[in-house]
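Researcher: Structure for this, please.
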Amino acid sequence: KSANPQWREQFDFHYFSDRKDMLDIEVWRKDNKKHEELLGTCHVDITALPTKQTNCLELPLEKHPGSLLMLIAVAPCTGVSISDLCVCPLGDPSERQQIAQRYCVKNSFRDIKDIGFLQVKVLKAVDLMAADFSGKSDPFCVLELGNDMLQTHTVYKNLNPEWNKVFTFPIKDIHDVLEVTVFDEDGDKPPDFLGKVAIPLLSV
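Model: Predicted structure, token format:
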């Protein structure tokens, strides 16, 4: 019930130079669980922003009244990676030794924010639900840890997809929960939900 909402939320997006350069933002109004209305959209050209500083932007909503006030910082991406299974970042014994040294007891207080990292190997899914009329699905997998999100590529027309990808996340809160969700890609429409699993970090 507000025309001037304040959210004060922070989100981390992993921007890679080979991905699209526009940040798309939508503002929605929700009357109840069933009725939603789009209040406006705006776009930010990430490549046009100065790096290594916080940019304060007031963005007018396109074709609708109102604007968004945002703070956007573009900084080098650290601690996050996506790789193929054959070049797994922890596969090299010398790298494992460096990491063991980095997190040994005597270095515990060297960098308080560096709690650790989580590496997830997404191998495959089995016996997924068929979301298309053809009796198949176009599945992809989304991994979320806190406000960090990474995803696999889509395997088309397959109920037993193999992704064989390795994802590495920096851990910001040891009480976070890793959420792994499988969706069916549906062209321009929102993806269909195929299943989800939640893994508390403290259970690993």
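Researcher: Any notable elements?
Model: The chain has two domains: 22-74, 81-203. The two ends are 41 Å apart (CA to CA).
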